[in-house]
Amino acid sequence: MALDWNAVEKQRESVRKRIGTPTQVQDRCSADALGVYGLFRLCHHWQAVEIPIDASRDDPAEWPSVEHAVRLSPAILTHLTRGNLATAAKLANQRLKISGLMPHVGHVVGDLRFARRLAMALAFPISPQNVRSLAKRLVRPEIKNEPEYSQA
C-alpha cells in the first residue's frame, strides 16, 4: 500500500492542465462570485423564490419547498449600474430579509466593472430549477417560533 504521493500529485496536476479544470484557488474565487450573483439573482427573479426545506433527495425537482415572494427593487439595479456594489448588496440583503429569507452572503466587495457585469447578468432569466439550487445554497427560510399551548 505504499504510494509515491509526489508522483500522484504531479500526475493530477498534469491531468488538470490538459483538461483545463480550475485550481482550488480559482474554484474558491468563482464560488465567491457565484454567491454574489446569486444574492442579486434571488432579488430579481420574476416569480416567487422556492426555498427547499428538505434537500435530502438526489433530484432537485423532488425537493419539497416553500415559496417566498420577493418584490423587485429598482434601487438595487441602479446601485449596481453605478458601481455601488456594497450598497446594492446591503439593499439586496434587506429585501431578502423582508421577504422572510436569511441570506448567507453578508458583505460584498468588488469594483465598478464587476458591479456592472452583475447588473447586465440580471437581464437574462434563469430557470426555476437554477433558482431553487441558488436558494438552497444561499438562503434559509426565517424560522419563527410557534406559540406554545398549555394543555389544560
Whole-number radius of gyration? 20 Å
The parts where pLDDT drops under 50 for at least 5 residues are none
Helix-strand makeup class? mainly alpha
Strand elements, count: 4
| Total of DSSP H or I helical runs spanning 4+ residues | 6
N-to-C SSE series?
HHEEHHEHHE
- Beta-strand portion reads 5-15%
How does this model look, in words?
By secondary structure, the chain is mostly helical. The protein contains 6 helices and 4 strands. The chain has helices at residues 5-19, 24-43, 74-82, 85-98, 112-121, 128-138; strands spanning 49-52, 65-68, 101-103, 139-141. The strands form 2 sheets. A two-stranded antiparallel ribbon has the order 1-2. A two-stranded antiparallel sheet has the order 3-4. Helix 2 (24-43) packs across helix 4. It is globular, with a radius of gyration of 20 Å. The protein starts with a helix and ends in an 11-residue tail after the last strand.
In short:
The chain has 152 residues and is mainly α. It contains six helices and four strands.
Topology:
Blueprint: H1 5-19, H2 24-43, E1 49-52, E2 65-68, H3 74-82, H4 85-98, E3 101-103, H5 112-121, H6 128-138, E4 139-141
Antiparallel strand pairs: 1-2, 3-4
Helix pairs in contact: 2-4, 2-6, 3-4, 3-5
Observed structural traits:
6 helices, mainly alpha, 4 strands, two-stranded antiparallel sheet, about 50% helix, about 10% strand, about 150 residues
